[in-house]
From TrEMBL:
GO terms for cellular component: membrane. Residues 40-189 form the Fatty acid hydroxylase domain. It comes from Roseovarius albus. This is Fatty acid hydroxylase superfamily protein. The keyword Lipid metabolism applies.
Length: 241
């Protein structure tokens, strides 16, 4: 119940739950029965979206401009910097909602050219129901991976792989959703057991290769100190890590 409460209280989750409800409503109101089958297509589509966003956007090389650095810090760098801060577990609403709108508009637009009569229900099935439900699952498993709680076998497996991303090599294991490791293996961003035995922990792992006292990091920590309740001691320790 604690995890569920933590999840629901993040500001983007109610929006995403509403998106799923709207998608179900559109399918019931305007969709043929066979359109429900496209919900399954939304699962791998969102997993690819999760991987691409995490690898190619959230792990961009640190920008020189402080404003751009701050955006990436709030989106993801800060989560690596303070991996146990619960307020940094979830995707910011300014990332998740625009991505939802963009994905829906793109899928709907393409389908409108191919099957205009069924574009809306199919897009609702793929993006609003299948995709957003998968995103909610991602948020659950990601949150769970960072909490010291009793876990299911699947949750333990996800935690093991995700810990390698955080504390062994941040250029590997970009997936979080169960089954997403297929994408990492296909894309060459997995760590196999033999490699893991010899894999050294990357220097400055929690700051994605940057020195912990990098001026951009220091400014970002202070900028978000109140929002994420970072104490002066936490900020000081992070700069010395």
């Amino acid at each position: 119940m604690t995890r569920l409460k933590m999840l629901i209280h993040h500001n983007s989750i109610p929006v995403m739950l509403c998106a799923v409800a709207i998608g179900v409503g559109l399918l019931l109101w305007h969709g043929p029965v066979w359109a429900w089958g496209f919900v399954l297509l939304g699962i791998p589509a969102q997993m690819l979206n999760e991987y691409g966003l995490h690898r190619y956007i959230f792990h961009l090389d640190p920008p020189r401009q402080q404003w751009a650095f701050n955006l990436l810090y709030q989106a993801h760098y800060g989560h690596h910097d303070f991996p146990t801060n619960t307020r940094l577990f979830f995707a910011p609403i300014w990332v998740s909602v625009p991505m939802l709108v963009l994905n829906f508009a793109l899928v709907w637009g393409v389908l409108s050219l191919i099957v205009p009569a069924y574009a809306l229900p199919i897009a609702a099935a793929i993006v609003l129901v299948g995709g957003v439900s998968t995103f909610l699952g991602y948020e659950w498993f990601h949150m769970t991976a960072h909490l010291n709680v009793r876990k299911t076998r699947v949750e333990r497996h996800v935690t093991t792989l995700h810990n390698q991303h955080h504390f062994r090599d941040f250029s590997k294991w970009f997936h979080v959703s169960p089954g997403g490791e297929i994408i990492d293996r296909t894309m060459g961003t997995a760590i196999n057991r033999d490699s893991l035995r010899n894999q050294q922990r990357i220097e400055f792992i929690r700051t994605l290769g940057m020195r912990p006292d990098d001026p951009r990091l220091i400014k970002a920590r202070h900028h978000y100190a109140d929002k994420y309740r970072l104490s002066a001691n936490e900020i000081e320790r992070a700069a010395r890590a």
